[in-house]
Amino acid sequence: MQEIRRFKPSTASRRFSVAAGFYNTCVIDGLLEHSPAEHVRRPAVPAESPTLGFTHLQFEALLTAGRQSTDPCDFALAAMLGLLGLRIFEATKVVLIPLPPAVGRAIDRAIGARTGGPILLNSRGTRMDRHAATRRLRCLADIGGVQVARAHPHMLCHTSVTTMLDDGVDLRDVQIAARHADPRTTMRYDRARKNLDRHPNYILAAYMASGT
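-> structure tokens emitted (212 positions)
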């Protein structure tokens, strides 16, 4: 997968996990004696996510460009991906998630007088897919003066997680919000985990200040 399809180590490892889980189920059900994936070495996944999200100012510029766009779906797209941390397939399907008022207003604006159908529409008036979302996001980045090499929807999901972590939101809460099955996945997004100013020793000392 890495040599032929040029997948990143994290993608190859994730897809291999699915195949390994399938073979393990076959062994449990007695369909196979041994899993062919048992001794296959998985690629090493770096401790930090290689995906670069937008900075706080870049994200604000994207939201502003979306808000000022003549297409209300642009603002809804930026808000749903960046403020809710949705993956693009979640933003274009039916999901259950808490809805902050700001995102709710963006969605109401995108829906308009419609009473049914998808929230996000492409230029043809049909359901927006990841390709259309990528094109719209790159257009908003150009309008907002956001200089990135190749903007794509997952960068907003990444931005949502890193911004929450940078703002001091508890790792467990961020993991739940990002819908990560493993907290180690969320930790890969924490750009400031080596910042000693956030070390829990300071929090503990402040909490016990009356006794010290």
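The mean pLDDT is 83.
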